[in-house]
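Human: Respectfully, please carefully check these tokens:
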Amino acid sequence: MNQEVKNQVVSALAKTDSKTRDSADAALSGTSNKGLISRVIPFLGPAFIASVAYVDPGNFATNIQGGSAFGYTLLWVILASNLMAMLIQTLSAKLGIASGQNLAEHCRNQFSRPVVYGMWVLMELVAMATDLAEFVGASIGFNLLFGVPLIIGGLMTAVCTFLILGLERYGFRPLEIVITVMVGVIAVSYLIESVLVRPALSVLLYHSVVPQFSGSESVLLAAGILGATVMPHAIFLHSSLTQQRIIVTEPGKLRRLFRFEILDVTIAMGIASLVNMAMLVMAAATFYNQGFTHVATIEGAYVTLEPLLGKAAGWIFAVSLLASGLSSSTVGTSAGQVIMQGFLRRHIPVWVRRLVTIVPSMVVIGIGLDPTRTLVISQVVLSFGLPFTIIPLVIFTKKKSIMGVLVNRKITTVFATLIAALVISLNLYLIYQVFVG
């Protein structure tokens, strides 16, 4: 075993809660006498952290626009895009499990130094754009809930994310629990919103499975929903979350560990998919059906919700936005750490990175740029990083020398390649529309 692998093992053992590790080992060995749920729990967590990228403030803006302008028409786009994202995140998780290294580390090992440095710079920009969107979203949440100016909301967001990131010193489990609770808050909030608007289930089912559009504008918005779903930072982060969490080398245990991770991805991404669909349903049932077809901002949605559904509905919406912004801002900062460590083998204290990424966010808030427009532009910046994320992921996971017994099946590689081509094409289309269209 080389020194790098030894360091990874030592780091993993230091971070992993011994009780969780013992429970996981018993489940993988087939010696656990616990029930199914108890056997599964030790493996849940990484996908829930990665799934935060799929319920971030940028999703709020896109789904509200889609629902208010076209009703339930684009529900199928959300379902399809999240199914595609499930496969991509599964490949990312599998890379970390099989190789003990994350995606950024593989890029560093496989590519030339100029390419590696170029990818690092691009991914740092992507991480900063991600953090900008999440930071602004949380600031809007504080503003809507407590009436504080956006600049004060930004400072409150900074303090909260510092506190959440501080949980990492106690191992991976506390941070996973906090992030999972926040995802739960978002999910419960939109469950309540869905109950309040009382959509017809038959209509929802129809629009969820039958592809259709309503004019050229709906096509463009569908491209926005699908093209911005897969996030580069979530892919890099997910491979890191699984690489040192539970380390096994036996082929049988590796396969069982991967099956548990598939379950983790399915549950977490399934919840994210339902939350996104609920966002669009809320906007469709509340705004579109009432004739408010031009609700294009988060603040506009909040202001319009109160007279239509009551003050409680607006408050629940703001709480979900705040939970989304805080959790995704925390995850974005962690992803930035993974990117720097993976590409450059450099490490800076997380509080330094947090301070650095605060600056552009506070500048945007301070000069009074439109928050929702800022969220949309940040998604365009993310689009530039997708080809340099998905393509290497597909290449690495189809190599037996890297993946061993968990190497992709041919059909998996085919589907992943098609999805990568589709997502990249749509993001290029979005970039064209923003700068030329």
Q: What stands out?
A: Residues 1-43 form one domain. Residues 1-16 have pLDDT under 50 and may be disordered.
